[in-house]
Amino acid sequence: MSEAVAHAAVAGVLVVAAAGHGAQAYTGYPANIDPVVAVGTHDYLGRPLRDTNANTVTHKWLDTSAAAYAVAMDPSGTLRDVTGTSPATAVVSGTAALAYAVRPDLTATDLRDRIDATSSPSSFGYAAPILDASRLLYGLGAEDSQAPVVTSTGLKTGQRISGAKDTDVGSPTFPTTRR
After folding, report:
1. With 50 as the cut, is the pLDDT of residue 165 above it?
2. Is residue 148 part of a domain?
3. Half-sphere exposure of residue 134, counting CA atoms within 13 Å on the CB side?
4. What's the helix, strand, coil split of the chain in %, to 5?
5. Which residues of 37-54 are buried (b: 16+ CB within 10 A; e: fewer)?
6. What is the CATH number of the domain that holds 114?
7. Which residues contact 29 (CB under 8 A, 6 or more apart)?
8. Is 176 part of any domain?
9. Containing domain of residue 37, as a range?
10. Angstrom distance (rounded) from CA 125 to CA 121
11. Which residue among 28, 42, 67, 134 is least enclosed by CB atoms within 10 Å?
12. Are 102 and 140 in contact (CB under 8 A)?
């Protein structure tokens, strides 16, 4: 695995990988191989997700984190709620793609450094910093020149996309499906 990551790095490819699950300080491959961008996940308050591999006081190996909850389309075209480091990694990878669209001249090393520099520190001790996509993109020179126009939300009348749980008021309600 290390050879593959080294080969990608020499070719100028930014490698982004999920930290994995297990709620332990286990450092998963290839996320723990330098220069991979190791991605953790957090809940709506910025707390590390409980069952995600994470940083420890003495071993801070995660580079950034993204929201634990996402909606993805399965092969049949059905939208599914997914949670965990895999969808969080997709968010970081997509943000990196947008960064390359804004600045195609960036090297993988430059982009990794900018992701690190623009991620917001976590309020939860040694947790991974939180990806700040807007800060990254605006820092690279992206501009909003046109207001967004919403043509459809995909929601049915009265459909809720979030709600409150008894134990965690205001948290999103998603099933725990992982991909």
Report:
1. no
2. no
3. 1
4. 25, 15, 60
5. bbbbbbbeebebbebbbb
6. 3.40.50.200
7. 1
8. no
9. 2-139
10. 9
11. 134
12. yes
Closest by Cα among 45, 50, 54 to 172: 45
Query: Looking at this protein, which amino acid is placed at residue 5?
Result: V
Residue showing tokens 């297990």: 22
Total count of domains within the chain: 1
Q: How far apart are CA 179 and CA 73, in angstroms?
A: 11
**Residue 175: per-residue pLDDT:** 45
In a domain, residue 158? The reply is: no
| Cα–Cα dist 172/76, whole Å | 25
* Residue whose entry in the numeric block shows the structure tokens 């998603």: 174
| pLDDT tens-digit map of 4-38 | 999 999 999 999 999 888 766 667 778 889 999 99
Per the listing, tokens 């134990």 go with 167
Rounded distance between C-alpha atoms, residue 54 and residue 62, angstroms: 7
b vs e for 12-35, b when ≥16 Cβ sit within 10 Å of the residue's Cβ? eebbbbbbbbeeeeebbebbbbeb
Instruction: Extract long-range pairs of 55-62: CB within 8 Å, 24+ residues apart.
Output: 55/25, 55/126, 55/127, 55/128, 56/25, 56/126, 57/125, 57/126, 59/25, 59/27, 60/126, 60/128, 61/27, 61/31, 61/32, 62/19, 62/31, 62/38, 62/128
Residue 155 placed within a domain: no
